[in-house]
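User: I'm writing a short methods note and want a consistent example. For BZIP domain-containing protein, I'll paste the sequence; you return only the structure tokens, no commentary, since I'll be parsing the reply automatically.
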Amino acid sequence: MKLSSQRLPNLESLAYTATQRTEESTPYTTEMTPQSNARQMKLSASRRERCRINQARYRKRQRQHEEEIEKHISDLQEEIQELETQHQDMMRSAPQNKSMWVVGTEYFRLFRHGYMAPMVAPEPTLAEKPCIRPDKQAHVQLDYLQTSMTPDVTDGNVSGAEALLENWKFLSLNHDDVHVQLKRLEQVAHDSLLAVTTTSVTITENTLRQVYPHLIEEHSTLNAKLLNQRLVMRGSVRFDWDASCGRMVRVESQIDMLTPMLKLLGSLDDVAYVFDKALLTPDGKITAN
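Assistant:
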């Protein structure tokens, strides 16, 4: 019997084939190099830093908002306390004529922020048109002056409700942020009240043009010193009451402009120059309109 010879496969070829099959069946993986790993860490750190900065900004805005609210609340509380004190002082004074006190306190409520422009009345309905003029304007301040004061009421310089209102208009339109604060109101005679006030105004370019025009033309240094400055002036208002008609006959105001001006300019000569040709006197009287 004859045995057939069979050739055995090459061992090296078998090993190569097995290696190839192993590589093909093994999933492809990317090995992180030191450079790419460092770059990834840097990007992560950058994102974390941006998040930290954004969170810090948000917390800062929140704190600022909370501080603003707290300050507003504090200001309101102080104002409420001041009004309560004024009310208690008035109640303790036990006025003999309550109407006189009502008119006096209403004056400061209406003129707390100076002159207010009239408001156009709402368009009347068809039923109202026969008795109401469509172009009528409501002016609360003028109505108050006309109903609470005599036709010839005076402030010592001018007479009549319209003239008093014009003085308020001159002061308010030629200054910014007018604020009149009633500090105290007391009865100084049977038919007289005396109010102690603080009036604050801001000097603007319009103030310099309309009230102190000579500074623009002649003295630019003083002009620059006054522009955008806030004047806080102490003053008083005296009310004289006519019990026979239940109205005020005299409302005389004065404010101390000299003291804050001197504090601002630092020289009496400069203050004298400011008021020399001004349309306001050092005690707040209007010299021309």
